[in-house]
Write a structure and sequence with these properties.
The protein is α/β, with parallel strands linked by helices. 53% of the residues lie in helices and 8% in strands. The chain is built from 14 helices and 5 strands. Strands 2-3-4-1-5 form a 5-stranded parallel sheet, sandwiched between helices. Strand 2, helix 4 and strand 3 form a beta-alpha-beta unit. Bound molecules: zinc ion.
Length: 304
């Protein structure tokens, strides 16, 4: 599987017994960072002397039941979209107390890019003077948003995104009955683990129905655009789909075949979609149908 390289690195860290006190997992969302960070934390706490968690010892059992006293999670609390200073303070208190098993302790921060400024500053103290036997694991899909001071104090493991065929093969094993078009579209929109959950949402089913796979291809042409324009109630996923199609179009079309006026304008529409998506993510109420149709109509006149 595509995680082999990251597995190997973690495995050699465990074998060497020389584990950095702070490890940062980076890579695109949906490639398996959180899942591997969990498994790695479990292995760090496992009482057996193997590199993989044994799944049998007392520590592994407690871990599976979310009652292990030597792991502390920092994540966005309900109704908040960031990790605040109080949470970091409780992690520092956890780091300074004696471990339940008299062994290692793990602090898992996921998603680390959501640490707010005060929280990052407080965390720095822990990164600069790490208590013995406490290992911090930070997981981030947007590590560019982490302060350089935090970044530079972590040992980084970068997760590669899998190649399409490997991802498709994996997704097909999970969803043997799903259509080829759905699987390819989900992988076009998301990395495999996110694609798997996306495929089950009603937003995705709506998009697939609107795209009408029997008629349109999976590319950017007038047919696809006119089909999308007909959707009465598009949601954010429609904007994301179109934005990615434009990105692909601009990447793949040789500049010579596109006159500069058209490519400049397509680029402009893509930026427009990006900013609309960002606004929706920030909770700004906007008329998606109106904005989406505007962009689609401009594109139709450009691509015709
Ligand atoms: Zn175990």
């Amino acid at each position: 599987m595509w995680l082999r390289e990251s597995h190997k690195k973690l495995d050699s860290l465990l074998t060497s017994r020389n584990i950095p006190h702070a490890i940062l997992f980076t890579g695109n969302a949906g490639v398996g960072k959180s899942e591997l960070a969990d498994a790695f934390s479990k292995a760090l706490l496992c009482k057996s002397n193997t590199n993989l968690p044994c799944d049998e010892c007392n520590s592994c059992n407690l871990f599976d039941n979310y009652t292990h006293g030597d792991i502390h999670h920092l994540r966005c609390e309900d109704s908040k979209n960031n990790i605040g200073i109080e949470q970091v303070r409780s992690a520092i208190a956890f780091a300074n107390k004696t471990s339940a098993f008299g062994d290692r302790k793990v602090i898992l921060i996921d998603p680390a890019e959501r640490l707010n400024r005060n929280a990052s500053n407080a965390l720095l103290k822990l990164l600069e003077e790490p208590p013995e036997n406490t290992i911090l694991i930070l997981v981030s899909s947007q590590d560019g948003n982490l302060p350089a001071t935090v970044h530079s104090r972590c040992f980084q493991i970068t997760f590669q995104s899998p190649d399409f065929h490997i991802a498709y093969h994996w997704l097909s094993e999970q969803l043997p009955d799903e259509s080829e078009f759905s699987k390819a579209t989900a992988l076009f929109l998301r990395q495999p683990l996110k694609a798997l959950s996306l495929i089950k949402t009603k937003e995705f089913k709506k998009l697939i129905t609107a795209l009408n796979p029997s008629k349109s291809g999976n590319g950017l042409d007038i047919d696809v655009l006119t089909t999308l324009a007909r959707e009465k109630n598009p949601d954010k996923l429609f904007l994301e789909y179109l934005c990615l199609q434009l990105e692909k179009f601009l990447r793949e079309t040789p500049t010579a075949t596109l006159n500069s006026h058209a490519s400049k304008n397509i680029f402009k529409q893509q930026s427009e979609l990006r900013s609309l998506i960002a606004k929706i993510e920030q909770g700004v109420a906007l008329n998606i149908k109106l904005n989406f149709t505007n962009v689609v109509n401009k594109l139709v006149s450009l691509i015709k």
